[in-house]
């Protein structure tokens, strides 16, 4: 685990001290769009997506690539599940970088910006033409995938429809802070108070979701939207990883009857289950965070039944 400072790699864990033991996520820095008339045009074969199967943020992008019929237009590379002193790494195929044969993901960040300072995260949406990062913020990558390539694919599925946007944004806001990032705030807290604060916010928000799903199948309106997919990638990891490894252990998702069924419904949506690679998910979390799990032993359970 580390970061780049003025183009130099430093092996450093998150600095929680200056925030009273709290984990504070940094902002993504590459924030371009793909659109007609802009520097990044919607073109088949031009872009490449780098993901980790372990990562819930990258998982969003993988799901949208699948649901929007982009697989033949945007290739994907998957990093090795372990993220250690050099950050995300490539290894032997199929976990390699087919574009530049890089050893480490940070080399791609340096190719995009030789003086880059910041964290080296997945997902990365790469432009092969300009040899740079288009965007490394999953919330924006899924919006790009949702509509930018529609003329190319003919796929008009819309997970961010105009009439629901305001409500989707409101739901996303709470889900992001208290659940998606909330599990990390529990797991990476280095002071009891910070952990308990995050724990309370997380389970209050999960209760709120459970209530919200009373008599309805999806979070917003009566259709699947990006709000559901953004929640899904955290829920699907919860019982296997966050419950134990991140000490988010008041209840499991399988203890909430509505959320359990909801999770199963999303998991079985055509194409989605193949984006869930539980082996990478477990190996990554239990194996990479040595401050939390020094033995790096990966638990065998639990038995999951989505
Ligand atoms: N806001 C980013 C966050 C991405 C992110 O933090 N990814 C994690 C993996 S789950 C990562 O690459 N972390 C490496 C690090 O923080 O050094 C997004 O949603 O795309």
UniProtKB/TrEMBL annotation:
<dbReference type="InterPro" id="IPR036249">
    <property type="entry name" value="Thioredoxin-like_sf"/>
</dbReference>
<dbReference type="InterPro" id="IPR047047">
    <property type="entry name" value="GST_Omega-like_C"/>
</dbReference>
<dbReference type="InterPro" id="IPR004045">
    <property type="entry name" value="Glutathione_S-Trfase_N"/>
</dbReference>
<dbReference type="Pfam" id="PF13410">
    <property type="entry name" value="GST_C_2"/>
</dbReference>
<dbReference type="InterPro" id="IPR036282">
    <property type="entry name" value="Glutathione-S-Trfase_C_sf"/>
</dbReference>
<dbReference type="InterPro" id="IPR010987">
    <property type="entry name" value="Glutathione-S-Trfase_C-like"/>
</dbReference>
<dbReference type="Pfam" id="PF13409">
    <property type="entry name" value="GST_N_2"/>
</dbReference>
<feature type="domain" description="GST C-terminal">
    <location>
        <begin position="161"/>
        <end position="288"/>
    </location>
</feature>
<dbReference type="InterPro" id="IPR040079">
    <property type="entry name" value="Glutathione_S-Trfase"/>
</dbReference>
<protein>
    <submittedName>
        <fullName>Predicted glutathione S-transferase</fullName>
    </submittedName>
</protein>
<dbReference type="InterPro" id="IPR016639">
    <property type="entry name" value="GST_Omega/GSH"/>
</dbReference>
